[in-house]
Design a protein that fits this description.
single chain; about 40 residues; mainly alpha; about 0% strand
């Protein structure tokens, strides 16, 4: 159970980081570039 909880926390943190990264760069860069970057994850 603890391993599952740790994985959920790690996934949620990664998801938050990706969302923040997208929101920071949408204003300065075209959205198509963001889609290419998110596909690399």
């Amino acid at each position: 159970m603890t391993i599952l909880m740790a994985n959920i926390v790690i996934l949620s943190l990664k998801y938050q980081l990706i969302l923040q990264y997208q929101l920071d760069n949408i204003s300065s860069k075209p959205f198509e570039n963001e889609n290419n970057k998110t596909n690399e994850f």
